Each structure stands twice: as C-alpha cells, then as structure tokens.
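User: If you would, consider this record:
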Amino acid sequence: MLRVEHISKTFHPGTINEKKALDRLSLHLAPGEFVTVIGGNGAGKSTMLNAIAGTWPVDEGRITIDGVDVTALPDFRRAPYIGRVFQDPMLGTAPDMWLEENLALALRRGQPRGLRWGISKAERAEYRERLASLGLGLEERMTTKVGLLSGGQRQAVTLLMAALRRPKLLLLDEHTAALDPATAAKVLELSDRMIAENKLTALMITHNMTDAIRHGNRLIMMNQGKIILDIAGEEKAHLTKRDLLDRFAAVSGVQEETDAVLLS
C-alpha cells in the first residue's frame, strides 16, 4: 500500500544550519498494516510523515501509494489517498463550521463540487450514526461549531473525518500528545477500532514507548533520519519497554540513559 524508496531530505543545505533529516530511508507497508513509529527528537519521524503527505518535497527517492507514484504531487493532490490527524486538536477541522458541515467537507474530499444542497437527509443520518459510535454524545451536537468542542472531542472528530472515505493511508502525527492521559487513551482506543473496522493501512508517530508497543502490529524506530529497528508479528507482541531500550542502545551505539534519548 505504501512504498517509500531511498528518500532523503536536507533542510538549509549549504548553510551553517544544514540538517539532514532523512538519509535514503526506505519503508514498505502492506495493506492493513498498522505501524507505530518512535524515536528521539530530530530522528526524522515528522519529516518522514510530511514527506509522505506531500507537505515537503524530498530531495531524492520515490513515494508510491497503492501503485500510484505521488513523489512529485503536492499535498492537495494526494488528498484522495491520505487521511491525516495532527498533533494539535485545533488543526484538521474548520472551527467556525458546524460539526455536520465538517463531516460533509471530509466526505467530499478530493471530489468535484456541484450546485446542490450541502447535506442531504441520508448524509445527516449517516453522520449521526457515525458520531454515536464514538460514544461521546456528539450525535446530539451536530449543529455545534467544532471550535466549541474539547480537545479530545475534536481529535475524535478529526479521526472520524480522516477515516470517513477509507483512505489508502491514514497518518497519525502524535495525535494524542496534546491530550491528558485519560483522553489520550480514549482517542487511541477509537483509533484502534476505526483502523480495524475499516481495514485501513496506518502509520502512527508517538513519543510514548508504551503506546508504540501496545498499538499496531509493527513497530519501527528511527534515529538520524534512518530506520534502525523494525519489529513485527510475535516479536512485537512480546516486546517490553526494557527490550526496546536495550535494542535501541545496541543498534544506535548510544550508551547513555536511553529513556532520555528516546523521550527527549
């Protein structure tokens, strides 16, 4: 479903601030895989996600989604293939529009627009049903402006919007980092359920080692713009935080306190 082939990205090349964020990185995701991504600050996690989404062009390499070469496409041309949930709950929605209007925008992403009523009765019934499945009572607030919702409610709505058209690839960009632990756990539970029910291929960045181990069926760790660990299947199912720290130290050659390195 996703093939990233030898991509590189350098910021501020030729200056004192030059930073090689991605170093000939390759990653392949099979349909239905749910991959968690972990690594320290500056490891290249967000740069990789932004390169896949088309936010930043890569210097070299190739990116293919479901057989379509999207390397040269800007982010808005990749919209039909990708759903994304950002770290900031304020992003991903139109705060001054009603909840049902936001869902209508998500449903029409990548489609031509015509002169017809914005939301049909059938669509409104579908939105109510989907919102009810979140278990947050939002089906009774469909004409509430999204900007009036709490951070957790907005992330749940953004997640629903991202999955509404069953994208080829779902990108979760530290989407629980700004939430309190209880709300984050609820959003992660919803993420697991939506990915499983819709059979989505997903890539989730997190700074939390426990979440990286607990969620998804594959885990990759990044360091200095490269993937240094790739763990899946039974090996991941039996992985512990201590195992992850020890393997990071062995592969990266970093011998200082690895918690500080990973969670810096």
The chain has nine helices and ten strands. Residues 181-198 form the longest helix (18 residues).
